[in-house]
Amino acid sequence: MRRPEGFDEPDAPEPAETAPGRRRRRRRRRRRDDDPDSTGPLAVVGGAQPSRPSGRAAPEASEVSEPRSSSWRDRLAGVAGASPSLRDRLPGGLRAGASGPDASEATSTGATSTGATSTGATGASEPPRIVAPDGTAAEAKARVVAARRQARRATSERRRVERVEVRRFTRRSRHRRATLVSLGAVVLLLVASVAVAVFSPLLSLRTIRVEGTERVDASAVQAALDGQLGTPLALIDFDEVTDELAAFPLIASYVTETAPPHTLVVRIQERQPVATVAAGDGFELVDPAGVVVQSLDARQEGVPLVDVGGAALDGPAYRSVAEVLLALPVTLRSTVDTVTASTTDDVTLQLTSGERVVWGSADQSAKKAQVLAGLIADQARRDPGASVEYDVSAPDNGIIRTR
Q1: Quick one: 184 and 247 in the same domain?
Q2: pLDDT tens digits, 131-167
Q3: Fewer beta carbons within 10 angstroms: which end of the chain, N or C?
Q4: What does R_g of the chain's alpha carbons equal in angstroms?
């Protein structure tokens, strides 16, 4: 609500007083209202001025004397006297209480001004009124029913949307929960499987199977590895297995494989002899590394006899001979009777058919073996009964000499 111009904002309400205090305040107010000197004349701006003694200048129009009373009615009347527009807006009772030359004018025009002011203030401050629509009672009832139906429809739609949202969020949370449960179950299953495989006696070693042995005793290999029996397959000590199998010189290599639930498979690759070496009254089969594979009382057929002039089997002369024998095809190697070599560059082969082969060093042994096979085939076509010597020490120029 808009306040009139010059109207002071009322003070905040004071705290409640007791009955004696209220009585004392009323007595002070009554004495102040009855005192004729408590209110003095106020100068009215724009109104009729009171008569003043001659020889004294009239006050300026903008000057207003201060009220001498603290009564709110007197102060309000003084403000109304100073402002004609505000005076016209005040109710008749307040204008009647104003002192000064314009008091009678305010009293005479109080009714008209009060009515105009009250109408303007009411029109400006009252809230807008809701005017009931025209129509009969049936139409009003129909409108009420339609409004209720629309409210129920809106409520039903809101509930439907809420149910859809609840289902959507519930489905999402349910799927998320199902995914987490599935992942947890998979992880738990993996952990349980690993635990069973590593620590459970259900997968312990009970059988050792040895494969690929001819010269090596398989039962001896099993007896050497029986210390692993009762150990879970995942905890088998393969370093210990390597140490146990190293005691068998005929084993060139091996491969282990676990076959759940209780079996360890050991596949052995034995050393294969490529030469025979005289040893006292007997013979020894040796592999390309010079390791004795087997000791024999008599020479074994199909394995060439090697003579390196008393040099060690791990020396350069024997390594050169072993490289030459490995370069020969299997069919040609089986026709070699003896091999002699005092150094790495004078390897000589003696065939079972009586021919002699000057090989030289072990360099380009694969090419020399191809040249030797060609020379033997050519000599067999021309004169198979002649005694000849084949020289392949220079593989680019193979030579056949007649002896």
Answers
A1: no
A2: 555 568 888 888 889 999 999 999 999 998 888 888 7
A3: N
A4: 66
Whether 319 and 349 map to the same domain: the answer is yes
pLDDT digits (tens, 9 = 90+) for 278-293: 988 899 999 998 888 8
Please indicate, yes or no, whether residues 185 and 157 belong to a single structural domain of this protein: yes
Tell me whether residue 208 is exposed, middle or buried, using C-beta atoms within 10 angstroms of its C-beta: 0 to 12, 13 to 18, 19 or more. Answer: buried
Q: Which domain holds residue 234?
A: 205-270
> Where residue 126 falls among pLDDT bands split at 50, 70, 90?
low
Same domain for 308 and 232:
no
Are the C-beta atoms of residues 233 and 205 closer than 8 Å to each other?
yes
- Rounded to the nearest angstrom, the gap between the alpha carbon of residue 60 and the centroid of all alpha carbons in its chain is 88
Beta bridge partners of 265: 209, 257
Give the dihedral of Cα atoms 294, 299, 305, 309; nearest 10 deg.
80
The amino acid sitting at 274 is V
Pairwise CA distance, residues 259 & 247, whole Å: 25
Give the other-Cβ count within 10 Å of 274's Cβ. Answer: 21
Query: Whole-angstrom Cα distance, residue 237 to residue 254?
Result: 15
Measured distance CA(285)–CA(291) in Å, rounded = 8
Contact between 361 and 394 under an 8 Å Cβ cutoff? The reply is no
Residue 316 token pair: 């350069």
Instruction: Name the nearest CA neighbour of 107 among 121, 87, 122.
Output: 87
